[in-house]
Design goal:
Blueprint (H helix, E strand, L loop, with lengths): L2 E3 L6 E3 L1 E4 L6 H4 L4 H13 L4 E3 L8 H9 L8 E6 L6 H15 L4 E6 L8 H13 L3 E7 L3 H10 L4 E5 L11 H7 L3 E5 L42 H18 L3 H10 L4 E7 L3 H7 L9 H18 L14
Parallel strand pairs: 3-4, 3-10, 4-5, 5-6, 6-7, 7-8, 8-9, 9-10
Antiparallel strand pairs: 1-2
Helix pairs in contact: 2-3, 3-4, 4-5, 8-11
């Protein structure tokens, strides 16, 4: 396993992080067996993955509770990242949310505590004050944000140390490269990438937009006539599936699974600390482990970037995958 520093801290985290949202089950993920989730946590630890990402908002803390059970007796092997929800960013609510997460996780400290989404009705300075108190009390080790674009991110950096920004980033979602990633590079803030396989598009599972189920077709890649889409845009389906075919061809030339090539590309981008891999059982986890040993040549990295440039151009400068206007400013 490869390990990288978490921001400017001395905390070493695996480049593959286990995204624990699937453990929540519920409306988004459907039925999920807690026993399989716990086995996945153990398999991750055994494979050298020490970084686990969850949130209080994943089915009212169920993901946190399952992760806590999975880490019983092995807490010292793990780096836990969780998140406070945007409706809990007033100071007293931040404290209460953290205490509840500690109970859910069955631990007395959280390694990385992240603001899940900005809340523009609550002064960020108030939220940061509560986070600093938690850090002084030893209840959190490091502070991060998630889904913070330029304005909010710059304000956060002026108020506080901030080790990470968790953002959507993949070959098919490169919006952050224009403005947000350069700030991360300049301030030594690590990027934690979510949706690095573009919700399955970069696994090669789908060859056309009409094969993608409506539950996954809510993002701005797809036309707003999809049942659950709320963005009101025409999407960029032609560009996306042309890019997917080109990535598929490059992966075939390399003799590598398409997903691993896509993850290796993310792994080699500036400021990236870790990328989240969601797995519902140990077998699913094992599919992505070989990416640790895969390094792409500069030529291949450039070919992959060129193949997806039309998608990047079509998506513009809105870093919100789902909504217009953006919730990220």
């Amino acid at each position: 396993m490869e390990y990288r520093k978490l921001g400017k801290t001395d905390i070493d985290v695996s480049v593959i992080a286990l995204g624990c949202w699937p453990f929540a089950g519920g409306q988004y993920w459907g039925d999920q067996d807690d026993t399989a989730s716990i086995a996945t946590v153990h398999a991750a630890l055994d494979a050298g993955i020490n970084f686990f990402d969850t949130a209080e908002g994943y089915e009212a803390g169920h993901s946190e509770r399952v992760l806590g059970r999975g880490l019983l007796g092995r807490r010292d092997e793990a780096i836990i990242a969780t998140k406070v929800s945007p409706n809990h960013l007033r100071p007293d609510e931040v404290i209460a949310a953290c205490e509840e997460s500690l109970r859910n996780l069955q631990t007395d400290y959280i390694d990385l505590y992240q603001i899940h989404w900005p809340n523009h009705d609550v002064p960020l300075v108030d939220t940061v004050g509560a986070l600093h108190r938690l850090k002084e009390q030893g209840k959190i080790r490091a502070i991060g944000v998630s889904n913070f674009a330029v304005q909010d991110f710059s304000e956060m950096l002026a108020l506080s140390e901030c080790e990470t920004n968790q953002l959507p980033y993949s070959l098919l979602w490169r919006v952050i490269e224009r403005e947000i990633q350069p700030i991360c590079v300049a301030h030594s803030v690590g990027i934690i990438c979510y949706s690095p396989l573009a919700q399955g598009l970069l696994t090669g599972r789908y060859k056309a937009a009409d094969e993608v189920p409506d539950g996954l077709a809510q993002t701005r890649w797809y036309n707003s006539n999809r049942i659950k889409a709320q963005h009101g845009e025409p999407g960029c389906e032609a560009e996306v599936f042309a890019a997917v075919e080109e990535v598929r061809k490059i992966a075939a030339e390399l003799g590598q699974p398409m997903a691993n090539v896509a993850l290796a590309w993310v792994k080699q981008q500036a400021a990236v600390t870790s990328f989240l891999v969601g797995a519902r059982n140990p077998d699913e986890l094992s599919w992505n482990l070989p990416v640790v040993d895969l390094t792409l040549s500069n030529d291949v990295v450039q070919r992959l970037s060129a193949a997806t440039e039309p998608v990047k151009a079509k998506l513009g400068n809105n870093p919100d995958m789902w909504l217009v206007p953006s919730r990220m400013r």
